[in-house]
Amino acid sequence: xxxxxxxxxxxxxxxxxxxxxxxxxxxxxxxxxxxxxxxxxxxxxxxxxxxxxxxxxxxxxxxxxxxxxxxxxxxxxxxxxxxxxxxxxxxxxxxxxxxxxxxxxxxxxxxxxxxxxxxxxxxxxxxxxxxxxxxxxx
Length: 138
Hints:
RlpA-like_sf; EC 4.2.2.-; RlpA; Barwin-like endoglucanases; Endolytic peptidoglycan transglycosylase RlpA
């Protein structure tokens, strides 16, 4: 009889802590101002961005839509298609919001491949690559 009383007490405490943790998680999301890094949360990822060459214009992306250099889109290795990401160039502070619609980049050390329009917004067309920080847009 004592064993089941201890077990039910542990279950109640576990449930109570789980509910509290979920409530805190949900409240923290409601308090954000739209961008993870601006709300005090750690950035999603830091690394090097590159951009697609013109030869990919019109080709089908991994999400099934044709690639358009004029759209503000990007490729990422693991983020779900449709995810919106704020890309901040770390050396000049310029930012652009893009939607993930493809997979890549396939070059070591790179974290995101941008459309030409997105790369233009960051001022990286001349160099071709730039140090960036990625943050979720909520």
